[in-house]
Amino acid sequence: MADPGIHTPSDTPTALPPSQWWEIKVVGVPLLDDLLFWRLQEEGCQGTASQIVNQELTVCGYLSLDRVQSIDLQKLAERLHQDVQSVGYPAPDISWQLITEEDWAHNWRDYWHPQEVGNRLLIYPAWLEVPEQCERLLIRLNPGVAFGTGAHATTQLCLRALEQRISEQPNPLSIADIGCGTGILSIAALLLGVQKAYAVDLDPLAIGATQASRELNGLTSDQLWVKEGSLDQVIQQLQHPVQGFCCNILAHIILDLIPHFADITDQNGWGILSGILDTQEPMIIEALNAHGWQVRDTHHEQDWCSLIIERR
Q1: Helix pair angle (184-191, 153-168), 10° resolution
Q2: Is 248 annotated as a binding residue?
Q3: Is 155 within any annotated ligand binding site?
Q4: Where is S-adenosyl-L-methionine bound in this sequence (predicted)?
Q5: Is 202 exposed, middle or buried (0-12, 13-18, 19+ CB in 10 A)?
């Protein structure tokens, strides 16, 4: 029996060009944003956006057409309902529709506005005119069809941690950005004083977005090296270990990567981890301790945490 809170398209084409995407829209109470973001990311959404109007939260996630079938969307909706009801809130209203890349790029403009992060950074939409005077470091982004805008708590935790760590170690030579998305963390690190960033992501859309972000912010390929892949590609590229790294991805992927973090960092290396729910923090710390890392500092926002770690 169809759930009244789940709406399916009335006419689903059978053959569509690869430039089309499913937009999943979830409407509920404002306190649900972290839970909804987490579930959409767990299910593979390559970008999320949110807004609150009249005490009503709308969260949108995006899945490429070639990675999902209609039945998968039905399962995703059911999981979202279960998540929300398990924490005592009414089932949200869930709908989805097919959109083009152009629609997606335009949709960001409805949700996203300039946002200050930390003491020095300003995330700035590419379609807005650059201010004549700005005391902050401007990170210009045009997310397109890859990942988010820096508004999510995990990204902001990473940006603030980067600012803190780089201020303590002026002009570090290089960092790695594992799971770079739009390249926002690499760009922030370079603006804050890092000389070179190595950015990798398993999704080719993210690589294209990072390359576009690099050009948009006036950076060169010598400053920001980008390649599809993960730690293996960074290891192959490095002539010398990096001083630090960022890793803002899901906790279970971080667990798999922890044994290999030392392969890219020098003896005094440090890292910033996020994408970790508060409830997942103990298992991450346990794995870090087992592989020669110690947690120097932690930061929490809503239900998420970031860890600044150092080699022992």
Answers
A1: 30
A2: yes
A3: yes
A4: 155, 179, 201, 248
A5: middle
pTM score, two decimals? 0.73
Q: For residue 247, which of 293, 208, 215 has the smallest C-alpha distance?
A: 293
The two structure tokens encoding residue 221: 């390929």
Mean pLDDT to the nearest integer, 62-87: 83
Once rounded to an integer, what is the mean pLDDT over residues 18-27?
81
Tokens of 25: 């829209």
- Whole-angstrom distance, CA of residue 22 vs CA of residue 107: 13
179 is in an annotated binding site: yes
Query: What topology is assigned to 20-110 in CATH?
Result: Alpha-Beta Plaits (3.30.70)
Q: One-letter amino acid identity for 48?
A: T
CATH classification number, 146-311, choose in 3.30.1300.30, 3.40.50.300, 3.40.50.150, 3.40.1280.10: 3.40.50.150
Q: Is 100 annotated as a binding residue?
A: no
